[in-house]
Each structure stands twice: as C-alpha cells, then as structure tokens.
Amino acid sequence: MAKKERLLNPDRPLTIEEAYALRPRLWWLYTLIVLVIAALLGWSGSAINFKGFASKGIVIAKGVGNGLIHPDTGLLFNLTTEGVPYQLLQTVAIAVLGTLIGGVLAIPFSFLACDRIVPKWVAVIFRAVILGIRTIPSLVWALVWIRVTGPNAFCGVVTESVCSIGMICKMYINAIEDVDTKILESLDAAGCNGFEKVRYGMLPQIIPNFISTVIYRFDINVKDATTLGIVGAGGIGAALIQCMNSSRWSMVGAYLFGLVALMIIIEIFSTRVRNRLARG
Amino acid sequence: MKKRQSAETAVAPALFDRVFKPKTVTLPNGHTVLQPVSRTPFIAAVVIAVVLISAKMTGFSFKILFERGHQLGYILGRIFHPNWDYFKGFWVEENRAETMKLMNALFDTIKMSVMGSVIGATLALPVAVLSSTNINKNRFAVWTLRILLMIIRTLPTLIIAKFAALIFGLGTFAGTVAIIVFTFGIVAKMMYESIETIDMGAFEATESFGANKFQSFWSACMPQILPTYLSYCLYSLEMNIRAAAILGYVGAGGLGILINEVIGWRDYESLGAVLLALFVVVFIIENTSETLRKKLS
Question: Residue A86: pLDDT band by 50, 70, 90 thresholds?
C-alpha cells in the first residue's frame, strides 16, 4: 500500500512508518543462502563418519598436551645441527631463497600473462601454464625435484621457488594492470626516452607492490617449508614428523614451540614492512 | 642566509641517519636542505648477505641443476601423459573400478573441505566479533583471543592433520578437523580486521534506542559485514580444496591417500590422472567462487 502511494507521489517526504514499510526485504536471498548451505552440509555429511577416538586416541591426546606443556628444553636450546635453532634457521633459509628465486622467475611470466602488454592468445597460454603449475601440490613438486637434487634442503629451495610462481604471478599481474599509463604519456611529453620512462614512470609504481607480494609469500613459504620436510626436502618438518611417529611428545613440543615463536616473529616483521611499503 | 630545517630532521632522526650524516645541499635561492644518504646500498648489502648465507646452508648449487636438470623431465613427462583408464570407466565397464576409486576420493576431498569450511567459518564469526576492538572494549580479552588465533594460524595444516589422525584415527574425520582449525584461524583474522573498519554510527544509534549489544550488532553491523564474510568463506573454500587434496598424505582421507598410493607404486601416469581430476575441480570451484565474490563486492 505504501509502495503504491510512493509511486503516485514521489516527492513527498516519508514518515518513519512508511520508510520502515519500504525497507529492503532480502528474506528470499537469506533463505536461499541458508538452503544452499544446509544442502551442502547434508551432502558432505555422508563422508564424515565420526567413529569415536582411535584406540589410543585419549593416550595420545594426553601425551600431546603433556609434551606441549613440558617441551624438551635441551633440544630447544641445542646449538648443534640437531637442535631446534639450526633446523629453524635452515627452514628460513629455504624460504628466503625459494621466495627470491620464485619472485624473480615470476616477473617474465607475469608480463607475458598480462593482456595489456602481449596479444590476448599469448596471455591465455601463459595463464594456463601458471594455473597448471599451481595445481600440482607442493608435495608432488618436491618428489619431482628430489630426482634432480636428492633429498636435502636444496630440494626444498627449488620446490618452493616453483610453487611460489603461481600466487606471486597472480598478484604481480594485478600490480601491472593497475599501472597508471597517463604518467608514461606525460613523461613522453616531457621528452624522456624509453629507459627514463620505464625508470621514472613504471618502476616506482610497481616495485613497492612487487616487494610487498614477495614478503607476503615469504610468510607462506616458511610455513610450507616446514611441511616439505615430510617428503625429505629439508627443514624442520622431517624431524617433527619423525618425533610424532615415534610418540616422543616432549621433542614434538620443543619443535612446535620453536616453530610458533619463529612464525609469530616473521608475521610481525612482514606486517610492519608491508605497512611501511603501502604508506610509501 | 636563512636556515630551514627539513621535515625529516624535525622529528627524531632514525638511527641510520645518525650513523650516516645526511648531505647538506644549498639551493640556488639560498635555502639549505638535508639530503639523506640513500639506503639502497645498505639494504642491498643485507639482502646479498642473507642470500649467500642461505645458499650455503641449503647447499644451493647451479652445477647440480645443470648436470641433473634433465631428470626433472622424467617424472613431469610421465605426469603429463595421464593414465586415461581412470576416466574410461564412465563408459567402459572394465575400468569402472578405477574410476569409482578416483571419484570417491575426489568427492571425499570436496566434502571434507565443504564441511570444514562451513563449520570453521561459522565458529570464526563470534570469535572475530569478540576480538575486534570497536565492539569488545575489554583490551585484555581482545589480545588474548588474538594471540590464540595467531598461534592457531602458525601451525601448518599438515601437522594439525597428523595430530587429528593420531587422535581420531585415520579417515576423513581427521581431515575435516584439520580444515576446521585452519579455516577458523584464517577467517577469524580476516573478519576482525574488516569488522574494525565498519561504520559504528548505526550501532550507537540502535543502542541509544534501547537495543542491547547483540540486537544492535545484529541489525546494524551484520548487514555491513555479511557480504565480506561470505566472500571470505568462499575464498577459504577455494584454499581448502587445494589443502584437502594433500591431507591424505598423513592419512587424513581424500585424494591425498590416492596420491600417496600411486607415488608409492612409482605409477606417475596414474598420478597425472589424479592431478588432472583435481585440476578440473579446482578450476571449476575457483571460477564459480570468483564470480560469486565479484557479485558480493
């Protein structure tokens, strides 16, 4: 009723009751969302069968709790290659090199996959290649590279660099597409040559974005490097999984303690650097 | 001669500027300005040193790459010749078993990540609200929650899955638990960051009408954060499909078990088939969710 009157007399200011009667009603949208989620849950519930705890589940849970409360301090502060600090340092080293190589390799890929720079069909081909690289899980990449390098930290480096390409490219491409070309035109008008245009018009716009992307990816790579150890690609993961398999929970506690501390330091550092880069 | 301080020296100079004194430049009009020494050489030196140390620690060598690089093609070449038997089962009776195996594992992975994303994201919402400073005025509670969330986020998913598999036994349930924990950590963090940027005027207005905190949050803040929340949920679903695919490696159900099995047999053609199936699913889900997320924003 209020709607009809509003159509007849659109200029008259509304009273509160009328505004309330005309409020947007999105109940059908909400019902739809709830129905979709309920259907998905019902469908996926069929795969998840909770069979209670495993036979030794409670014992293990207790062991884990104990180990986390009483980490093996001898291992935690052991400065030889067996100790937690060295293993963590190696994990970070893997991530640093992997991220840097990945970041450098991603530059040509992202320029070739950006349809503002190359013809459309070239861009489509390179985008497909990048998607292909991304789909192969990092553990499989590690297995592929182990044949080349042997099971050591070097394998972790090359694996990380290949795995980083996918995400870094995606963000590089966004940065390249955001470049303001009017600046290039005005530099052109001021009489700059090609090199100067790239140096003063392009680089200042994309370099902060690129560095920020690389630091963000470094964060992720440190975390990934810990899991790569599971297939023998160096870093802390190998020792951690071994301890878990043989139920030495105090050692697991020590490794996890070191890992969490390292990740928190790195996250704080990377957030600060990226905030500074964003503010210029 | 008039002397003017540049803006940078007005605030306390950084340590770097105190060690390397800025150069004083006299402009043609008589003013002097301080030109700080460029930091690029310093940063470059640090980066080069870090890279050299890392290369030494990890045993990086170009020699090995060049000498044995051709080995890379061996497995990759076999992966790119997938074993089509896995897909023939749709129309050939004798391959039915392989196809069913692949499809079951694939759907297990999808179900695990859907279930995990929905539960994890649902749990994350109240925690995110409680750990945003503009709604929860209790500083101590906010920081406790945030540090907890940070610790949860730092644990690698595979390690959580391993723990879950040890406690709940092998199978999809352990994988789902790992995905719930992972999704919870990441969605809660992204949500409290965006809750802090919303407009609190409407919240205060409804509160002044006499609504309690929950009512005013529901009617004033929910409409503002709902689109962001849904888009984060979709984003985490995208990531989870990828993560769920490898969780099976530690016995947590899904495609990973199959991947582990075919790698154990050195059957890289079958690995190619499994990865191809994963590729198709990831491609479909990513595109659907990207379209939906564009609509939401």
Answer: confident
Number of domains in chain B: 2
Q: Is B73 on the interface with A (CB under 8 A)?
A: no
Q: For residue A152, give the chain B residue with the closest CA.
A: B58
What is the interface size between A and B, counted as CB pairs within 8 Å? Answer: 172
CATH number 1.10.3720.10 is the correct assignment for the domain at A75-279:
yes
What length does chain B have?
297
Q: Which domain holds residue B52?
A: 1-60
Residues B221-271: tens digit of each pLDDT: 888 888 889 899 998 998 898 888 888 888 777 888 888 888 888 888 888
The span from the CA of A81 to the CA of A86, in Å, is 5
Cα separation, A67 vs A33, whole angstroms: 43
Domain boundaries along the sequence of chain A: 9-45, 75-279
pLDDT 10s digits, B3-51: 444 444 445 567 777 777 777 888 888 788 877 777 788 888 988 998 8
Contact A144 B76 (CB under 8 A): yes
Count other C-beta atoms under 10 Å from residue B89's C-beta. 18
Kindly tell me if the per-residue pLDDT of A3 is higher than 50. Answer: yes
B78 assigned to some structural domain: no
Instruction: Give contacts of B43 with chain A, Cβ < 8 Å.
Output: none
Does any domain span residue B65? no
Select from A130, A148, A155, A268 the residue whose CB has the most chain B CBs within 10 Å, as the one to mutate to test that interface: A148
Mean pLDDT score across all residues of chain A: 83
Entry pTM: 0.81
Contact B57 A259 (CB under 8 A): no
What's the complex ipTM?
0.78
Q: Is the CB of A49 less than 8 angstroms away from the CB of B57?
A: no
Non-local CB neighbours of A241 within 8 Å, separated by 6+ positions: A229, A230, B162, B250
DSSP one-letter string for B185-216: HHHHHHHHHHHTTS--HHHHHHHHTT--HHHH
pLDDT given for residue B126 in this prediction: 92
Do B176 and B245 share a domain, yes or no? yes
* B65 inside 8 A of chain A by CB: yes
Residues of B in contact with A241 (CB under 8 A): 162, 250
**B136 and B249 in a common domain:** yes
Q: What is the CA radius of gyration of chain A?
A: 27
B interface test, pick of A49, A144, A275 with most B CB neighbours within 10 Å:
A144
Instruction: Give A152's Cβ-side CA count (13 Å radius).
Output: 12
In a domain, B115, yes or no: yes
From the list A40, A153, A223, the residue facing B58 with the nearest CB is A153
Length of chain A measured in residues: 280
Same domain, B56 and B102: no
Same domain, B147 and B278: yes
For residue B33, the SS3 value is: strand
Inspect the interface and report whether the beta carbons of A267 and B245 lie closer than 8 Å.
Answer: no
- The verdict on a CB contact (< 8 Å) between B58 and A240 is no
pLDDT at position B6, please? Answer: 45
Choose from A79-88, A94-103, B215-224 the range with maximum mean pLDDT.
A94-103
Distance CA B164, CA B173 (A): 8
